[in-house]
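[job 4471] stage=fold_predict status=RUNNING
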Amino acid sequence: MRRLALPEGWEPKRLKAVRFGFINLAGRVVSHSRQVIIRLSTSHPAYQVMLEVRRRMKALWVAASKDTALGVGPP
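[job 4471] inference complete, writing structure tokens
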């Protein structure tokens, strides 16, 4: 997953470093209309990294769904 989803420079990091890089972020978890939303400051350095990881994971989901014809959208 590190090679496929994380941006360049994050591949050699250990799971603990990845966890601290993403989990220990200042933010707010909001529950609204049966959705859980994580609100982060756009000025935080990890914000752009999280957007890139999400984009890559969505691309992997789309590629896998084309191969298996799941017929469901990305998370």
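[job 4471] summary: The chain has one domain: 2-67.
[job 4471] exit 0
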